[in-house]
Design goal:
This protein is α/β, with parallel strands linked by helices. The protein has eleven helices and 13 strands. The strands form four sheets. Strands 1-7-6-4-5 form a five-stranded mixed beta sheet, sandwiched between helices. α3 crosses α4 and α8 runs parallel beside α9. The longest helix has 22 residues. It starts with a strand and ends with a strand. The mean pLDDT is 97. Bound molecules: acetyl coenzyme *A (ACO). Acetyl coenzyme *A binds next to α2, α6 and α8. The site of acetyl coenzyme *A has 25 residues, from α2, α6 and α8.
């Protein structure tokens, strides 16, 4: 049976490191509050003029070179983000232009922190049906330009970071390897619990002075609700990934949860009964990079030599929408 394998991975984060202490010059917060509530010690921010497509391009060049491939070998781009470079067109086409591969189809996926898993689900279906053979799957996010850096926005501003991760996916007929399953979910009843209100095509004008003055241009979140749902939905979807494939938590080599908050990851780990070496977290260094967080972490795991052929990798995510899901991969 044809399955989807990860041919290579890569990531890029901007050079600028922003420590927790830096936030104290803009808002009422502290390194201690941020570290104890979230686990984050620093994150990266883009330089002025650097966008998500720029970061994705750097990450894609790394993955292409590791795979011994050229951009022209790609036959599809799937670009996952909640922070597109422009309102329209999607950011995938800007990445495609940088890669110099006109004509190659580009799909933009707007499923926030679960974007990479939604994108993987689509890529997996396309590869298994033979529609595409070399898909560049991207999660890239620029949060730093869209945060309220005053005390009003402190609950969100300290959480997020910029970065991009990619995977090149293709078919394998090596029995038993590759993507075993993906499960994706959404519940729009909670859309406003983690939400950015403006600009909005549902209002005239889409963007006005009132949006700027009221802070509607910045994301807002009911953190406790998000925390509660995230720490329930992620373990649930991991259990589903395991039971679908007749596996149990002890079979997991590495679980890569979306990096939302270290406390959430620790709850997921506890609920699944995983040892420390069975889960990977890097939110301490990058903050929450939303669609970028899973592919960045996956690449770090791969580069650290933690995955051997045949190992079981589980990905899980939860994000705004709400959206959530999981993927099981036999490496
Ligand atoms: N620095 C200092 N104090 C702060 C900060 C900050 N950066 N942010 C909030 N506070 C204050 C609040 O104003 C509040 O003050 P008050 O008691 O005087 O009103 C106090 O700290 C406690 O606030 P809570 O919101 O109750 O703090 P909580 O313990 O819930 O932690 C946090 C907040 C860390 C945001 C938590 O709710 C959380 O992690 N939620 C999940 C967030 C998340 O993961 N979001 C992204 C997931 S989905 C996605 O990735 C898109």
């Amino acid at each position: 049976m044809l399955r989807t394998e990860f041919i290579s991975t890569g990531f890029y984060v901007p050079e600028r490191v922003v420590t927790n202490d830096e936030f104290t010059q803009w808002m009422d917060t502290s390194d201690e509050w941020i570290r104890t509530r979230t686990g984050i010690t620093e994150r990266r921010w883009v330089a002025n003029g650097q966008g998500g497509a720029d970061m994705a391009h750097e990450a894609a060049l790394v993955a292409l070179s590791r795979a011994g491939l050229q951009p022209r070998d790609l036959d599809c781009v799937i670009y996952c983000t909640l922070s597109p470079d422009y309102f329209f067109p999607g950011t995938g086409v800007f990445l495609q232009r940088k890669l110099g591969i006109p004509g190659v189809p580009c799909l933009d996926v707007r499923n926030q922190c679960t974007g990479f898993i939604y994108g993987l689900s689509v890529a997996d279906a396309w590869i298994r049906t033979g529609q595409f053979k070399r898909i560049l799957l991207v999660g890239s996010e620029v949060h730093s330009t869209g945060m309220d850096l005053t005390t009003r926005g402190r609950d969100l501003a300290v959480l997020f970071g910029d970065g991009a991760g990619v995977a090149i996916l293709g078919p394998t007929s090596d029995d038993g390897r590759g993507v075993l399953s993906t499960h994706i979910f959404a519940d729009g009843r909670h859309a406003e619990l983690l939400f950015c209100d403006a600009p909005s095509s549902a209002r005239r004008p889409r963007l006005g002075q009132e949006d700027l003055d009221s802070g509607r241009i910045y994301p807002r979140m009911q953190g406790k609700e998000v925390f509660k749902h995230a720490s329930t939905r992620m373990p649930e979807s991991v259990q589903l990934a395991l039971s679908t494939n007749g596996l149990s938590a002890s079979d997991i080599k590495v679980l890569i949860p979306h990096q939302a908050n270290l406390r959430i990851s620790e709850m997921v780990q506890r609920q699944l009964g995983l040892r420390d070496d069975q889960i990977y977290n890097n939110i301490q260094r990058y903050g929450n990079t939303t669609a970028g967080s899973i592919p960045i972490a996956l690449d770090e795991v791969v580069q650290a030599g933690r995955l051997a052929r045949g190992d079981l990798v589980i990905l899980t995510a939860f994000g705004s929408g709400f959206t959530w899901g999981s993927a099981a991969i036999r490496w």
